[in-house]
Amino acid sequence: MNQLTNQSLHQGVSPQVEKFIDTLFDQLCASCPQLLNLTLERLQVVKRQWILGFAENGITKITQVKRGMAEMRAKPNGYLPSVGEFIQACKVLDYHVLGLPNEAELYQRYKTFLGYARFNRDEFQYRSKMEFWLLKNLYEKCKKKSEEDTLKTIPKLLTEAAEKVRSNFPFEDIPKMIPAKPSFYDKAKADKARDSLMAMMKGKGALQ
What we know:
Helix content: 55-70%
Strand content: under 5%
Pfam families: Phage_lambda_P
Number of helices: 9
InterPro entries: P-like (IPR009731)
GO biological process, one term: DNA replication initiation
Protein name: Replication protein P
């Protein structure tokens, strides 16, 4: 039974990631004394929960774990992240590697975009085709929804965008700004025509 349980817990995660988690916990034990109070059996349970969390959230590559490690190193000494916090750190940095904003960045860009969305969308300075796709779809999904619903939609949309980037999805081009209609009024020509007319009228007056 234990063997089957371990297989299901480890499924989808490479042996390298499991080994890296062992190394990670060794480092955490050095910086977080509270881990030293756990029994070996309890520590193994915690590690298995991390492995399960990784598998359920698509953290299957050593590079992803290293990104999370880099983020955690920026935290104060003695800080012990939960598996959820560590996974979020892996994903946030992974978005940047794919050329995508993280959740907070996308929300800020969306709030700016709302000032253009109704009438001046073509004037908004999109940073990439991916951002254009994100903002366009987020607006279509959330323009009539609450801020809370928008914040819930953003992670799902970013996950979808990340999958598209990884699969080389051909994002549509950013629409070009429609040029202003040409004016038929040319001030220089109008001034010249007026001067010519005035000169002509003066000439006629002199002849009379």
